[in-house]
């Protein structure tokens, strides 16, 4: 089946943007000019531009026209056991290293573990967990989202049951768990990509349907998992850098 005409026009314009024929900040030709160049109707030209807006390539300004979107500088998020094992917030340390003011907002509530989360935590489905949702920011702009789950069997009645309340507020998972005698020895991560949900797109201030990276992270003691999280990152703003420790014997 042939692709819709507006889609073919949008594909051509997208390739021009990627190739640098239209630089960030450049104004696209008017819809009248696009209609004339591609020998299509005004409605087709308008739909093509809207496709570029939806894809995050172009922004429309009322009464002014459509402009190639300026891409923010790509910053780095370091995935490193060394950083996790230190005191304080690894995220805030990452931001400070790039002269960015890091912060976050969070909310926690006790609930039951969905089946997939229960599997990751090696607990029974519907076992109680503390679920915490985060929006991380850099210079007050959203950087990433995270939803974490911790088994209440481990944290209930301790001073770290609420991750962002009490004396260990703002500390990483490793330090918080160490405070209640849970020594984390390993972390595992699975990285995938998918379209952002409507809520994720709104919270990250990206176009709905934009592709995001999802990190499924789980922390383990020698005995069991103690925390798992889904971390959502927009890849056009942040890259992931993995630092892997190597022992003196080469292992």
UniProtKB/TrEMBL annotation:
<dbReference type="InterPro" id="IPR000524">
    <property type="entry name" value="Tscrpt_reg_HTH_GntR"/>
</dbReference>
<dbReference type="Pfam" id="PF00392">
    <property type="entry name" value="GntR"/>
</dbReference>
<keyword id="KW-0805">Transcription regulation</keyword>
<dbReference type="InterPro" id="IPR050679">
    <property type="entry name" value="Bact_HTH_transcr_reg"/>
</dbReference>
<keyword id="KW-0238">DNA-binding</keyword>
<dbReference type="Pfam" id="PF07702">
    <property type="entry name" value="UTRA"/>
</dbReference>
<dbReference type="InterPro" id="IPR036390">
    <property type="entry name" value="WH_DNA-bd_sf"/>
</dbReference>
<dbReference type="InterPro" id="IPR028978">
    <property type="entry name" value="Chorismate_lyase_/UTRA_dom_sf"/>
</dbReference>
<dbReference type="InterPro" id="IPR036388">
    <property type="entry name" value="WH-like_DNA-bd_sf"/>
</dbReference>
<protein>
    <submittedName>
        <fullName>GntR family transcriptional regulator</fullName>
    </submittedName>
</protein>
<keyword id="KW-0804">Transcription</keyword>
<dbReference type="InterPro" id="IPR011663">
    <property type="entry name" value="UTRA"/>
</dbReference>
<feature type="domain" description="HTH gntR-type">
    <location>
        <begin position="3"/>
        <end position="71"/>
    </location>
</feature>
């Amino acid at each position: 089946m042939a692709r819709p005409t507006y889609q073919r026009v949008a594909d051509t314009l997208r390739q021009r943007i990627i190739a640098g024929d239209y630089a960030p900040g450049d104004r696209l030709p008017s819809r009248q000019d696009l209609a004339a160049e591609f020998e299509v109707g005004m409605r087709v030209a308008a739909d093509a531009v809207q496709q570029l807006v939806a894809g995050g390539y172009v922004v429309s300004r009322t009464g002014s026209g459509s402009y190639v979107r300026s891409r923010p500088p790509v910053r780095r998020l370091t995935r490193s056991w060394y950083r996790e094992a230190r005191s304080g917030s690894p995220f805030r340390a990452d931001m400070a290293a790039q002269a960015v003011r890091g912060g976050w907002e969070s909310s926690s509530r006790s609930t039951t573990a969905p089946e997939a989360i229960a599997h990751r935590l090696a607990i029974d489905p519907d076992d109680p967990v503390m679920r915490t949702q985060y929006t991380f920011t850099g210079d007050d702009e959203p950087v990433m989202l995270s939803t974490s789950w911790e088994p209440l069997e481990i944290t209930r009645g301790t001073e770290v049951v609420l991750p962002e309340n009490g004396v260990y507020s703002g500390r990483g998972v490793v330090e918080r768990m160490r405070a209640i005698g849970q020594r984390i020895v390993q972390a595992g991560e699975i990285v995938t990509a998918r379209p952002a949900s409507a809520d994720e797109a709104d919270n990250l201030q990206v176009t709905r349907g934009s592709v995001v990276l999802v990190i499924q992270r789980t922390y383990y003691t020698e005995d069991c998992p103690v925390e798992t999280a889904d971390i959502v990152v927009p890849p056009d703003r942040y890259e992931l850098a993995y630092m892997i420790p190597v022992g003196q014997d080469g292992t």
